[in-house]
Amino acid sequence: MRKLPIVPRWKVLNRVFKMLKNPIPSFNDYIEEFGDTFVVYVGGVKRGIFSINPDVIQHILQKGNRKYAKSPIQTDALAAYIGFGLLTTEGDYWLRQRRLIQPGFHRQKLVGLVDIMQQEVIKACASFENSALNGIPIDMNQQGMEIAFKIVATSLFSSDISDEKMNELSHSIEAVQAFFIRTIRLPFMKPIYQLTGKIKKHQQISDDIATILDELIENRRKSGQRKDDLLDMLLETRYEDTGEGMTDTQLRAESLILFVAGHETTANVITWMFYLLAQHPQVVQKLRQEFDTVVGKDELDYEDFRNIPYAVQVINESMRMYPPAWIIDRMAISDDEIDGFEVQKNDLMIPFIYGLHHSKDLWDQPEQFNPDRFSRENKKDRHPYAFLPFGGGPRLCIGNNFAIMELQLILFHLIQRFDFELADQTPVDLLPMITLKPDRAIRLKVSKRKINSFF
Ligand code: HEM
After folding, report:
1. Residues in CB range of 360: below 8 A, 6 or more apart
2. Torsion angle, CA of 404/133/170/114, rounded to 10 degrees?
C-alpha cells in the first residue's frame, strides 16, 4: 500500500496563527512540498487527508460516497442552530428529504421564479443608479449580500415578507452564522461563551428566526393561497411512501437551510465576479456583445438563459478563481483504499476545492482570469472533477441551477446598465470563512454605461 506523505506537526504548529486568519497559503505550500494528496494532523491529533487530486476527490464525493459521511461539524454543531434538514442530516432521513425537495429545483420548475428574481434584481439597480449619480463608490460586498439575501427571501416567500422582517431575518442569520464559525474555530472558548451568556444569546436569536419563519408558514397555510414560490413547493410536495407533506418543524428547518446555503455563497460570487470584471473590460465588451445580439431587449425570459453561454463562462471562471465553498469535509465511516493508499475509519477527508481550481496540473495559467477556458471546445477534455464549485456526487448543491440563473440575471442587468472601475487599488487578500470572502470591502466606481443599445 502506498504511504501518503505527512506534514510534520511542527510545520503546522509554526503556522498556527497565520492559519487562523487565512490557511490557504499554507495549504498551497504543503501541496508544493508534499504533492496533491497528503496527511495533516488537524488540531495536532485528528488525521486529515487533504487532496486536490480529481480522482481522489471523485472517489470521496461520488464513486465511494457510501463510505464517507458529512462531518459532525455540520450534522451536529450546525444543526443545533439551523435545524435538521438537507444540509445537516445524513443517511435515510437526508435521502428522503432530497427526493422530496429536489424536483422543486429542477430547471423547468425554476421558470416560475424568473419573474420574482428579475424584479428583485431590477430593484437592486437603484443603489447602483444612485452611486452613478452621486459619485460615491459602491460597496460590492454589501450589495452582493443584500441582493442574494433578497432573492432567496422573495423566492421562498414572494411578497409575504415585509422589508422590516427581511432585515431582521438577514441580521439574525448573519449573527448566528458568525457565532457558529467562532465556536468551530476557537473550540476552547466554549466554556467562556457559556459563562458570558453568548451561547444563550445566540440560541435566543435562533429562536427568534424560528418564530419569524413559523409565522410566515402559518399565514400561508391559513390563507390557502397558491403562489409561484419555493414555500408553495415545500408545502405542496408529498413523500412518495406516505403521501404526507412535511411537518411545520421540517418546513422551518428546510427554509432556513435554503437561506443559509443559498445567500452567502451567491453573494460572494457577485462580489468577486464584479471585482474581476472591473479589471477586464474586454470580457465586459464580449458579454455585452452576447447580451445585445442574443437578448436584444431589456429583460431576460426563460429561453434566454440557455442562449447566453458566455455569461455562464464568466460566472464559472469567477467561481473557479474564487470558489465560495473553498473546502469540503467528510468523515470516513469505514476503512477504504483510494488510488493505492489507505484510508482509516474516522479519517477526516478534505477535498481542497480552492487548490483544485488553481492546480497547475489541471489549469493552464491558473491565476489568470480567462472565461474562454469554459467554452464548449476548451472544456470537453477536462476531468469531470476538476471544477467543483457546487461539490459533486449525491450531495451536489441542490440550488446550482437556481444560483446560475440568479447570477445570469445580475450580470445582465448590471452590465447592460453600468460601467465599473476599481475605486481602490490596494491588493485584496482572501478571507476564507465558511465561504471565501475578500478580506476588505471591494469598492467600485459606477457610471452609466456609455454606449447604450436599448436603455
Ligand atoms: C454560487 C452559489 C452556490 C454555491 C457555490 C454552492 C455550493 C454548494 C456546495 C459546494 C454544496 C455541497 C457541500 C458538500 O458537499 O459538503 C452545496 C450544498 C447545498 N446547497 Fe448550495 N451553493 C450555492 C447556492 C445555493 C443556493 C442558491 C441554494 C438554495 C436556494 C443552495 C442550497 C444548497 C443545499 C440545500 C445544499 C445541501 C444539499 C444536500 O446535501 O443535499 N445552494 N452548495
Report:
1. 366
2. -30
Q: What are the φ and ψ backbone dihedral angles of 196, each rounded to 5 degrees? A: -85, 0
Domain count within the chain:
2
Q: How far is the CA of 177 from the centre of ligand 1 (A)?
A: 16
Amino acid sitting at position 267: A
Q: Summarize pLDDT for 270-314 with one digit per residue, the tens.
A: 999 999 999 999 999 999 999 999 999 999 999 999 999 999 999
Closest residue by CA, ligand 1 atom 13: 391
Ligand 1 centre distance from Cα of residue 15 (Å)? 31
Q: Please, are residues 149 and 166 in contact by the beta-carbon 8 Å criterion?
A: yes
- Distance from C-alpha of 272 to C-alpha of 319, rounded to nearest angstrom: 8
User: Lowest-confidence range among 121-135, 173-187, 362-376?
Assistant: 173-187
* Average pLDDT over every residue of 234-249: 95
Q: How far is the CA of 289 from the centre of ligand 1 (A)?
A: 31
Strands (E), 105-203: 138-139
**pLDDT tens digits for 400-436?**
999 999 999 999 999 999 999 999 999 999 999 889 9
Nearest atom (ligand 1) to Cα of 254: 35
Same domain, 424 and 305: yes
CATH of the domain at 435: 1.10.630.10
pLDDT on residue 455: 46
- Please check whether residues 227 and 210 belong to one and the same domain: yes
Which 3 state secondary structure label does DSSP give 66? helix
What mean pLDDT do residues 157-161 have?
A: 89
- 379: amino acid identity, one letter: K
Whether residue 454 has pLDDT greater than 70: no
Question: Contact, 329 vs 346, CB < 8 A?
Answer: no
> Is the same domain home to 411 and 293?
yes
What's the CA-to-centroid distance between 399 and ligand 1, angstroms?
A: 6
The reported pTM is 0.95
Q: Which of 150, 397, 408, 434 to mutate to test the pocket of ligand 1 (most atoms within 8 A of CB)?
A: 397
Pairing of strands 46-51, 348-351: parallel
Residue 296: partners with Cβ closer than 8 Å, 6 or more residues away: 453, 454
